[in-house]
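Problem: given the chain below (283 residues), write out its structure.
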Amino acid sequence: MNIKISLVLIFALINFYSPIDNPTTTYPFSVKVSGQGKQALFFIPGFASSGEVWEDTLTPFEENFTCYTFTMAGFAGEAPQNPITFDHWKSEIANYIKKENINRPILIGHSMGGGLALALAADYPELIEKIVVVDGLPALMALTNPDFKSNDQLDCSEMVQQFQEMSEENFYEMQKASMPMLMQNTEMHDIVLGWSLASDRETFAKMYCDFSNTDLRSDVSRIQCPTLVILESYFVNFKPAIEAQYKNLKTAQLVYANKGLHFIMYDDKDWYLDQLQNFITTE
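Solution.
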């Protein structure tokens, strides 16, 4: 597998804070809570990203909503935690909702975080009010390979070894080269690059391998809640393939940005916030 090309693929799809502190439970993520309101909003970042990616997104909602901002373990400086699997992270977010007695949150997920939102809404429909998927797909690898099928016996050890043995310089250059393919807003390149460089290499490799093997195209048929899928402008060129991936999600509304790339919150901010505001506040 060409790691550089694959990483680009996964990225391309892929005011007052108080941390939740529960000494009896260790979740594979940190959570910061801001704002106040009866309706909870969960903000789940994408692959190797910090919860800081939602900083500007939060501001319009904190007055009327309670916002929970996640950063997944092993990413962007968060301490790693085993097991490192997509399914474990999904189930632990569900456990967090139940144990913290959070009533039917609205999930907003970017890239891989959007995949987690889809999986949660499919497997725990009773827990979720609505979901927003920001530039994410049910099966990332199926975008370039329509015949893609997940492998139940996938072995990620070789990829983990490759990443762990990669020099700091080579890893830096690989990540830096992907930035222009992820966002047009050059002012944010160093920030997003910094999150990748601060991520744990084992987590980076294992979750990349595991998420690349994830296929939710059939699972999304179980989603019952309203769903908004916000896609980057370039994806309009792949509209038939993308809509084929979402064909089983009957509640989905797909919209394409007017400009920009994967980090829509940076490249088409005003349009993106309008889409969120309209969807979240509509009964």
